[in-house]
From TrEMBL:
GO biological process terms held by the UniProt record: isoleucine biosynthetic process; L-leucine biosynthetic process; L-valine biosynthetic process
CDD domains associated with the record: BCAT_beta_family (cd01557)
Transferase found in the keyword field: yes
Name of the protein described by the UniProt record: branched-chain-amino-acid transaminase
Length: 299
């Protein structure tokens, strides 16, 4: 339970930012978090944008370590495909009626075991382009992990799900000509010449998973392009995926936009490149493969 003043800035003016990361039991029995330093840095990026107090990285990592140790019995064992999800939360607690930032902030962390995202296999999904609603505006707060961003996207995501599409792809709100991101995940496109393409936009949340996959793609000899991606380029890709903490990669078989359907591969098989990237990153997280970039933080 949290005791919070009814006039706290988190409740009235949206001074709230959060993160999401996972803790894994690795093959050797150790327990490690995936790149938590990057989550600490991204939380502080959100804090700066929302005029909140930043959290010292050492404090963030100490809180994460205590959470994992105090809840060690809830961290799933190696071999189950499960992990321990951690949600850091930073909120403004000072009561304000006038619109101004808080003087005091609380940092919380909650944790819970989560099962394997793909219980029945690594299969593609169908997506639609959402142009009835916008997720975030240029120069707004789409590039930080503010809770209000997700509230703004709920209507559009529900709109797509009611029509049978598990995920929705959003366009830039200024022109509706460029790809931004999926509702809760970054966009990845793989071209015929094995180039990894992901959009660059001021309204996209920088995904730690995406950055990590880009590094792995370069390790595999692929070219990586982070740039504006026009709608017309959807015909260029041989594979498309959505990437984020929850699933690492969600392969996308088709994207529907009005009367047009763009397809990638087959409806029951993920593409070869995305599968390799997914297996490599999961292998590092679970300790099945080498960790050349020292991403795993032992708790």
């Amino acid at each position: 339970m949290i005791s919070l003043h009814v006039a706290a800035t988190a409740l009235h003016y949206g001074q709230e930012a959060f993160e999401g990361l996972k803790v894994f039991t690795q093959k050797d029995g150790s327990v490690s978090a995936f790149r938590p330093d990057q989550n600490a840095q991204r939380l502080n990026s959100s804090a700066r944008r929302l005029l909140m107090e930043e959290v010292p990285q050492d404090l963030f990592l100490e809180a994460l370590t205590l959470l994992a140790r105090d809840n060690s019995t809830y961290i799933p064992p190696y071999g189950t495909g499960a992990s321990f999800y951690v949600r850091p939360l930073l909120i403004g607690t000072t009561p304000r009626i006038g619109v101004q930032p808080a003087d005091e902030y609380d940092l919380y962390m909650l944790g819970m075991p989560v099962g394997p995202y793909y219980k029945d296999g690594f299969y593609p999904v169908q997506a639609c382009i959402q142009d009835e609603f916008d997720r975030a505006a240029p120069h707004g707060v789409g590039n930080v992990k503010a809770g209000g961003n997700y509230a703004a996207g709920m209507m559009g995501d529900l709109y797509g799900k009611k029509r049978g599409y598990p995920i929705s792809l959003y366009l830039d709100s200024a022109s509706h000509q460029y790809i931004d991101e999926f509702g809760t995940s970054n966009f990845i496109g793989i071209t015929d010449d094995a180039t990894y393409v992901t959009p660059k936009s001021p309204s996209i949340l920088p995904s730690i998973t995406n950055v990590s996959l880009q590094t792995l793609a370069q390790d595999m000899g692929m070219r990586v392009e982070k740039r504006p991606v026009h709608l017309d380029e959807l015909t260029r890709f041989r594979e498309v995926g959505a990437c984020g903490t929850a699933a690492v990669i969600t392969p996308v078989y088709s994207i529907v936009y009005g009367d047009t359907t763009y397809t990638y591969g087959t409806p029951d098989t993920a593409g070869e490149t995305l599968t390799k990237l997914y297996e490599e990153l999961q292998g590092i997280q679970y300790g099945d493969r080498e960790d050349p970039h020292q991403w795993m933080y032992r708790l």
